[in-house]
Amino acid sequence: MAARVPADALGRRVLCGAEYATVRYVGGVPPTAGIWLGVEWDDPQRGKHDGTYEGKQYFKCRHPRGGSFIRPNKANFGVDFLTAVKNRYGLNDEQDVERGTEDTLVFGKKTVEFVGMDSVAEQQRQVQLNQLVDVSVRECAVSHAGQKEEISRTCANIRHINLSKNLISSWDTVTAIASQFQNLETLNISENKMKFPSTSTYISSVLPRLRILALNQTEITWREVLLCAPGWPALEELYLTSNNITVLERPDNVLQTLKLLDLSDNQLLDGNQLHLIAHLPRLEQLILRNTGLSSIHFPDAGFGCKSKMFPSLKRLAINNNKISQWSSINELDKLPSLQSLQCHNNPLMDTEKNPDTLRQLIIAKISQLEVLNKSEILPAERKGAELDYRKIFGNDWLAAGGSWDPDKNKPSEEFLAAHPRYPSLCLKYGAPEEGELKAQQPLTLKNQLLTLTIKCPEKPEQKPVEKKLPDSMTIQRVKGLLYRLLKIPGSELKLSYKSSKLEGKEVELDNDLKPLQFYSIENGDCVLVRW
């Protein structure tokens, strides 16, 4: 018996075994008999041709070998939402209730007296479905909503739904399901290739309490996002990764409640696209991993000023991009609320061999940053980074017209463009003194070695030892060295140091992951060891 082909089969999503495809043709393929489905596979390696058979093109594919013809009985057109829920949670007719003797019912191990078997079973299912709050029907072949309003009558208390990787073919199907839950807060429909509304006359169904929406890998465009967005009046988090979004448009009267936006793995045309979403008033987190960004610029603000763009943005992720110039990092200081930045895997990160130096430069350039690449910036680290920055570029400041005399202090525009925070650092700590700006010796290995005296104040019988250590050596490695030198367990050591410049003050070396240079230890200083 031939399988029945749905009247709306064209454009529908289907499963054939474990492979996903979209129906592009329904009909005959002479000289063979019967009905065929022409499908375009999600995985083009599964196909055989581009929709052409014996010189006639029946349908088109994106990939020259992405298509096949299959018989309808090989295609799974999916199930309705409620059937998928019942199957997933064991609430369908076969799994929920077993027949006992002629006058009893068995629920698990409990036997109940017969009181109209069908009605009791149905009541039991209704109670269990109504208790569901968080539902996942990922990869359950959901393709349609089912009978009108049946979902709302059966499981109205659901608040969180994972509908990812199913057979949903259109946004209308999504709204037909989701609009039946008045308290729906989270909806994940990622990995469903579907059609979205494309005209401004589209009237979106409203999901009044939806806060989190994931539309990753759905082939949606930004324009289609904006057409659907009137239906999300309370949306706070929107995930749009891997959708081939290249251009953005300014959201007018939509997405105004959005706090998080993830556009990762979309190759944006250029950095100017960000200006079009820069006035979302509540946006706190923007994720732009692997978006092809090569530069960032906020043209509405000058050197040392704050931009009106992204007024609430606290967390920004720009890892895995093409940013190669420090000017983009300078621009980030214009964001008035920025607290956290992720920026690894950009060409800029290769400009400094020492990752600690790179981190210090970024910290010094962005004044209000509190977390960099998921690592907290402590006040002492910020102070050290800013003081070092002020010293390192002090000679450049003088050469560009900077001066200790306020009346003559007029650094060039070029210097200010490269170091927009330098004037504010001078105000914060004072201009660098002449002694700080003496020409530094070339950084050879010899010059990076510190000659330190190591003492054990609580063990007077232990003679002081003089050692040469590289300033890049971490405290943890210093402890390991002392363990071997002094024959004591490294984990129990407590280190500090004294310097003649600190007038007898003792500074604790309390972070095992930091190098000696982090604590500004110099030649001739004394390291104190206690255990």
TrEMBL record:
InterPro entries: CAP-Gly_dom_sf, CAP-Gly_domain, Leu-rich_rpt, LRR_dom_sf, Ubiquitin-like_dom, Ubiquitin-like_domsf, Ubl_TBCE
Pfam family, one: Ubiquitin_2
Subunit structure: Supercomplex made of cofactors A to E. Cofactors A and D function by capturing and stabilizing tubulin in a quasi-native conformation. Cofactor E binds to the cofactor D-tubulin complex; interaction with cofactor C then causes the release of tubulin polypeptides that are committed to the native state. Cofactors B and E can form a heterodimer which binds to alpha-tubulin and enhances their ability to dissociate tubulin heterodimers. Interacts with TBCD.
Keyword Lipid biosynthesis appears in the UniProt entry: no
Domain CAP-Gly: 27-71
Gene Ontology biological process terms from the UniProt entry: cytoskeleton organization
Subcellular location: Cytoplasm, Cytoskeleton
SMART domains: CAP_GLY
Source organism per UniProt: Ardeotis kori
Native organism taxonomy: Eukaryota, Metazoa, Chordata, Craniata, Vertebrata
Keywords per UniProt: Acetylation, Chaperone, Cytoplasm, Cytoskeleton, Leucine-rich repeat, Phosphoprotein, Repeat
Protein name as it appears in the record: Tubulin-specific chaperone E
TM region(s), chain numbering: none
Coiled-coil residue windows: none
Family recorded in the similarity comment: Belongs to the TBCE family.
Job of this protein: Tubulin-folding protein; involved in the second step of the tubulin folding pathway and in the regulation of tubulin heterodimer dissociation. Required for correct organization of microtubule cytoskeleton and mitotic splindle, and maintenance of the neuronal microtubule network.
Ranges where the Ubiquitin-like domain occurs: 450-529
A single GO cellular-component term on record: cytoskeleton
